[in-house]
Design brief:
The protein has nine helices and nine strands. The chain is of the alpha+beta class and about 325 residues long. The chain folds into three domains: about 80 residues, Phosphorylase Kinase, domain 1 (2-Layer Sandwich); about 160 residues, Transferase(Phosphotransferase), domain 1 (Orthogonal Bundle), CATH 1.10.510.10; about 60 residues. The strands form three sheets. It has a five-stranded antiparallel sheet with strand order 1-2-3-5-4. The longest helix is centred in the C-terminal third of the chain and has 40 residues. The termini are far apart. About 5% of the residues have low confidence.
């Protein structure tokens, strides 16, 4: 009853599973989204309790949809979040594949968000396009933390839903395997594939098999260094993936840095070719500078990559 007093329900936005999402007006006049759950939906109620425990741990500044209020004790338990009228990544995907440049930026934003959750010790476990919202400022935000659990908690069934799901890592379908941060990395890799190709890998598919099934030899429009990152994300063995969102974010930053280095070197080569006619000496110097730019850039990126690998190995030792 208190939900009727505090919030004015305006219209139903959607329903599914064990709940209904509605647009509502809060006491202060702003419009919000209310997700009401059926009292008998025990798995959904457990997720709501988890979401309540996470409230305040991961905020909008961290790349997550903020939770404004949770009331698990009502006749119809509900959760209140801002009304994000610009839709979800699923809405964007209904328009077709997303251009490579935009996909790479989405990957960076979501990797950083996952990295913040992982640093706090939480595994999301349900990252998918429906749980990624476009904020009013154009930033992509992660929602759906109801399935998240602390990494150090007992991994009693990786989660309540075990049907084959393209965004679930292989280990999430097997009770005997531990589920950690790498499961979220897999989900993000599947999302990246869907952004570029129109669909994620099917359960058990590697990137190579997915591309072959679609009649492609490579990911369209992206450099080989980015394709390598995606291939690692959707590796079937969690040990072959990046160990956390932060590790993936660093790999994407390195990939971007590599692209900038190659662009700078190419510019110097073009300049050298222009100087070739005017002065052979300037041509030699420009080519030497281009080579030096690549060499220094590769050295810096190699050092960052090595530092990332050592950090992952040390973290793996601490968590086992």
């Amino acid at each position: 009853m208190s939900a009727r007093v505090a919030y004015e329900l305006l219209e139903e936005l959607g329903r599914g599973g064990k709940g209904v999402v509605s647009r509502a007006r809060a006491p202060d006049g702003r419009e919000v989204a209310i997700r009401k759950l059926d009292r008998g939906a025990e798995p959904a109620l457990r997720r709501l309790e988890r979401e309540r425990s996470l409230r305040g741990a991961l905020l909008e500044a961290d790349g997550f949809v903020p939770v404004l209020e949770i009331r698990p004790g009502e006749e119809r338990p509900f959760i209140v979040t801002p009304l994000l009228a610009r839709g979800t990544l699923r809405d964007r995907l209904r328009e077709g594949p997303i251009p490579a440049r935009e996909t790479i930026e989405i990957a960076r934003v979501l990797a950083r968000s996952l990295g913040r959750a992982h640093k706090a010790g939480y595994v999301h476990l349900d990252l998918r396009p429906e749980n990624v919202f476009l904020g009013e400022d154009g930033t992509w935000l992660v929602a759906g933390l109801g399935l998240a659990r602390h990494f150090r908690e007992s991994a009693q069934a990786a989660e309540e839903r075990r049907e084959l799901d393209p965004y679930k890592a292989p280990e999430q379908h097997e009770r005997s395997r531990a589920v950690g941060f790498a499961a979220d990395v897999y989900a993000l890799g599947a999302i990246i594939c869907e952004c570029l190709l129109g669909e994620p890998p099917r359960p058990g598919e590697t990137l190579e098999i997915l591309l072959a099934r679609l009649g492609l030899s490579r990911l369209p429009g992206v450099p080989g260094s980015f394709a390598y990152v995606v291939e690692r994300c959707v590796a079937l063995d969690p040990q072959e993936r990046y160990g956390s969102g932060n590790a993936l974010a660093l790999a994407l930053d390195i990939q971007r840095g590599l692209g900038r280095i190659l662009s700078a070197a190419l510019l110097l080569v073009v300049l050298a070719s222009m100087l070739c006619v005017a002065s052979p000496t300037l041509f030699v110097r420009a080519m030497g500078l281009a080579f030096a730019v690549q060499l220094v850039g590769y050295a810096v990126l190699s050092f960052q990559g090595l530092h990332m690998q050592v950090g992952e190995q040390q973290k793996a030792k601490r968590t086992h």
